[in-house]
Design goal:
This is SCO family protein. Pfam families: SCO1-SenC. Keywords: Copper, Signal. InterPro entries: SCO1/SenC (IPR003782), Thioredoxin-like_sf (IPR036249), Thioredoxin_domain (IPR013766). The chain has 206 residues and is of the alpha+beta class. The protein is built from six helices and ten strands, in the order αββββααβαβαββββα. Strands 1-10-9-4-5-6-2-3 form an eight-stranded mixed beta sheet, with helices on both faces.
Length: 206
């Protein structure tokens, strides 16, 4: 299934897709991808965060030139976030060295109250030390998530061992910052790797 649209209306679309769809395109679809094609539905916002090395990272400008997967989650997540990062790490391991050079995984914490750069760095290192982790203000985090159609909900009382609700989809963006694919939670590493190999080939075609 290929989705092509301007940014306006993308939020409602992606909410519907993630609520109703399985790991990706369904049997019979003519798409070569397992993930759902969302060409141009979203654009990476120009919002600056702090990365897991303590440096400024502009989500749009610092992702230019490489195909980028973006996932919002939090380090205290008991299931979806570690599983997604582990699946991404396994998929990246299946890429050739040249393909890895042209692909980046960006994790944005939906829980910046607890997830500082040092904690994110330690957490991501257990999956792949080359993954980029970002933290920012609640306002910037929610603005970026909203721009990309990602839902986030936090309890008003954020004391103790609280949980953060967040969209479980991973969005993939072109080197120009335009959305290309969406993987739902549960997409297998082999399928992610196959999608990436095809996508990276297309992104590298003049």
């Amino acid at each position: 299934m290929r989705i092509t649209m301007p940014l306006a209306g993308g939020l409602a679309l992606l909410a519907a897709l993630t609520a109703c769809s399985g790991p990706g395109n369904q049997p019979g679809d003519d798409s070569p991808y397992t993930g759902t094609e969302v060409d141009g539905a979203f654009t990476l916002p120009s919002i600056t965060f702090t990365d897991n090395k303590g440096k400024d990272y502009n989500l749009k400008a610092d992702s230019e030139g490489v195909t980028t997967a973006v996932f919002f989650g939090f380090t205290n997540c008991p299931d979806i976030c570690p599983t997604t990062m582990a699946d991404m790490a396994q998929a990246v391991d299946k890429l050739d060295p040249d393909e890895r050079e042209r692909f980046k995984v960006v994790f944005v914490t939906a829980d910046p109250d607890r997830d500082d750069p040092e904690l994110i760095d330690m957490w991501l290192s257990s999956f792949n030390p080359d993954f980029t982790g970002l933290s920012g203000t609640l306002e910037d985090t929610d603005e970026a998530a909203s721009d990309l159609g990602i839902s986030i909900s936090r309890p008003e009382d954020r004391e103790g061992d609280y949980q953060v609700g967040h969209g479980s989809q991973t969005l993939v963006f072109s080197p120009e910052g335009e959305s290309e694919l969406m993987w739902n939670y549960g997409t297998e590493p082999d399928a992610i790797a196959d999608d990436l190999k095809l996508l990276l080939k297309e992104d590298n075609t003049p």
